[in-house]
Specification:
alpha+beta, 17% strand, 3-stranded antiparallel beta sheet, Ybab, Chain: A
């Protein structure tokens, strides 16, 4: 009986530790910048780890119509968001000790 209580106490302690580590990781990620590119690197989107678009850089020599440029920028932003998700998944595995918590971000 008491073995189970000790096990539960250990699990609660681990859960609190994971929660604290996740909060620290979330704060760290908000200050992390991840890039995405399109058009062979002529358009670069920078997204923070909390999925905020920080800036977009467009090569001034890129000669495209507004419609095509909008598609290229969209592709760069989506690439940056995807790269951010990948980074978050890696960091989550570190924080949780490999425990898979689906759809947390």
């Amino acid at each position: 009986m008491f073995g189970n209580l000790a096990e539960m106490a250990g699990m609660l302690k681990k859960a609190k530790e994971i929660k604290g580590n996740m909060q620290a990781m979330k704060s760290e990620m908000a200050n992390t910048e991840v890039s995405g590119t399109a058009a062979g690197g002529k358009v670069i989107a920078i997204v923070s780890g909390d999925f905020t678009v920080r800036r977009i850089t467009i090569d001034p020599n890129l000669d495209e119509s507004n419609e095509v440029l909008a598609q290229i920028v969209t592709a760069a932003v989506n690439d940056a968001i995807n790269n951010t998700r990948i980074l978050l998944q890696q960091k989550m595995k570190d924080v949780t000790g490999g425990l898979d918590i689906p759809d947390i971000f």
